[in-house]
Design goal:
Blueprint: E1 8-18, H1 21-27, H2 30-49, E2 60-65, E3 68-73, H3 78-97, E4 102-114, E5 119-122, H4 123-134, E6 140-142, H5 144-152, E7 161-168, E8 171-178, H6 193-204, H7 212-226
Parallel strand pairs: 4-6
Antiparallel strand pairs: 1-3, 1-4, 2-3, 4-5, 6-8, 7-8
Helix pairs in contact: 2-3, 6-7
Length: 227
């Protein structure tokens, strides 16, 4: 398998928004925000390099801009999809345990990823961004374009995915979601479901009013996944 990435091809894209980033910048010292982003960036790079498939080929890349993390798959292959999902599940787990609110979506389609020239564009990036805007809980779900592509992969069952009646701004809808890496595991590697919920509890004490709805919805989601 080649390590070369095509600049333009069909690929999966995850768009993840760190919620409350503007307030974070206002209330935290600038250097503290920078250190936090370095921690997130460091974990993101670790997630991308984990040897999920018993090889050392990198099948996902990502970029961070302000409050947005974007993860790209190398292509539309089974391995690239598994790798992206694993990366996003690990990153989401880390954000939850660090009490960092986030929501996102994964879409599929033709995308240009020209890293040397910092040129990134394509319909899946737009689709993922627009869908995450609708999400009313902390978590990550699949856009219809990704659903359709996965359905076409006969007998393929993605890892770390869970179908859920997701709360959205204009009602609820069933979507496949990517759950945090350890949401279904108990007391393993000192990371457990309780650690995820502890992160949610920290967030609860930092929010009031309508934002509490995100907390309630997220608790319900994680409890559903863990059963």
């Amino acid at each position: 398998m080649s390590n070369e990435w095509e600049v333009t091809c069909n690929r999966y894209v995850a768009f993840i928004d760190i919620m409350g980033f503007k307030d974070m910048v206002m209330r935290m010292p600038h250097d503290d925000v920078y250190q936090l982003m370095l921690k997130i960036n460091g974990h993101r790079k670790f997630s991308e390099s984990v040897d999920w498939h018993d090889n050392k080929i990198y099948l996902a890349k990502s970029t961070t801009y302000s409050d947005s993390i974007i993860v790209y798959s190398k292509d539309d292959s089974f391995d690239s999809l598994d790798f992206l999902i694993s990366t996003v599940a690990s990153l989401s787990n880390y954000l939850f345990t660090e009490a960092i609110p986030h929501k996102g979506a994964v879409a599929f389609g033709r995308l240009t990823l020209d890293l040397p020239n910092s040129i990134f564009f394509g319909q899946p990036l737009i689709d993922a961004y627009l869908l995450q805007e609708e999400v009313m809980y902390y978590g990550i779900l699949f856009h219809a374009s990704a659903d359709r592509e996965i359905a076409d992969k006969k007998h393929y069952i993605p890892i770390f995915t869970y179908k859920y009646l997701c709360p959205l701004k204009n009602g609820n809808a069933n979507h496949d979601t990517i759950y945090p890496f350890y949401a279904r595991l108990k007391d393993i590697n000192k990371i457990s479901f309780d650690d995820l919920m502890a992160g949610i509890q920290k967030l609860k004490f930092q929010t009031s009013g309508h934002l509490r709805k995100y907390i309630d919805n997220t608790e319900a989601y994680l409890e559903s996944v863990s059963r």
